[in-house]
Write a structure and sequence with these properties.
Elements (H helix, E strand, L loop, with lengths): L19 H10 L2 H4 L2 H9 L44 E3 L18 E3 L13 E5 L5 E3 L1 H6 L3 E8 L16 H5 L2 E10 H7 L14 E6 L6 E5 H4 L4 E6 L2 E2 L9 E3 L12 E7 L14 E2 L5 E2 L8 E6 L10 E10 L5 E7 L7 E2 L1 E2 L9 E9 L4 E9 L8 H8 L12 E4 L5 E2 L2
Parallel strand pairs: 3-12
Antiparallel strand pairs: 1-2, 3-4, 5-6, 6-9, 7-8, 7-12, 9-10, 9-11, 13-14, 15-16, 16-20, 17-18, 17-21, 19-20, 21-22, 22-23
Amino acid sequence: MSQSNTPLNLPPDPPSSRSRRRLLGRLAAGGLVASQGAAAAAGELLRPLEAAPSSRVPGAPVLEHPYGVPSPREAGVVRRSARQWPLPGAASSMTPLADLHGTITPNGLVYERHHGGVPDIDADQHRLAIHGLVRTPKLFTMDDLLRLPAESRIHFLECSGNTGSEWNGPSGLPVQLTHGLLSCCEWTGVRLSTLLEEVGGVSAQSNANGGAWLLAEGADAAAMTRSLPLDRILERALVVYAQNGERLRPENGYPLRLIVPGFEGNTNVKWLRRLKVVDAPLQTREETSKYTSLLANGTARQFVFEMDAKSVITRPSPGHRLATHGYYAISGIAWSGRGTIRKVEVSTDGGASWRLARLDGAARDRALTRFEADWRWDGAPAEILSRATDSTGYVQPTRAQLVAARGLNSQYHYNAIQQWRVDASGEVRNA
């Protein structure tokens, strides 16, 4: 079994020189305003504004919902599963990416992946053990952790099986069910390095075999356990107790979980109960029979932790229908487990030509980045794609390039360019 974490490197294409200002000028010159019924709109504005029905009666009392809930009109924006799971405790639910804005995922919509259901844990009784090749093994209560210096950071979390449905070609599924094992949150907790300082640091014995590893174990029924290279995560990893400003929710690891920015989702162990410093990976079930990628030549990629650069257009995407010809903003998200997003390119002709998209603000390290590109749809069929390049120079590959490098036997770490097709009717499909 081979061990490699080398990403697939593919050369970028030169961006188009078309500017947003020239495009918007052409849209106006092409009669966009007239096509949307400007005259009718002007007549509507000339009529006196009437009081809205909601302005004529008192609204709901302040504490009708002590914990805020979305509008009933947003009841369809929920997590969904791509398939029927044989065991309810070993299942996943997916984030509705096409219905979200910005880059932060609300706690109630963060994707789930469980192997033994969601445990009911009393935070007052929960303990974190740090032991193994450390100088002073210790048990930490939640109060102990809350007394230590806290740090908050925004990072994405992605299951390595995300978009695995596309290995064999377009699945026909909407973006929630192709890319929805992905969320991005603000995580708050204690640095792993701080906790190791609390136990006196790693002992010299751990270097006997060339470096220390960290075994992380959860308190769920599956006892999710993963081995992690300590030198690669020490300054990045957090042991967290809060997410988006509130304590972790049970399905996201309450009361404690590990966050390893950029690493595949299952290494971010939920319901964390112990961290053991060891001198080599322990070859647990979740890193041998699971979460390895079988290549065409019969070998497997093992311990491939980082999630490679990826992007997807979320609007328009399958399930949407373009109602009229004219201007649309193509919007989506991009991310990389190896750093920041350097640029995103968009194509509306199936990849024959590309142009730069705008990034919304400065790209954060190992976090989602929102991008947008201007587009005028003239009613003809179109194929829209996005392609990300990260801070290492890595360029998101095509499906053909990815299959040529890794074959069709894997179900993990699929990060190829995703194409949506816009029919002449305006319907958007995964095809």
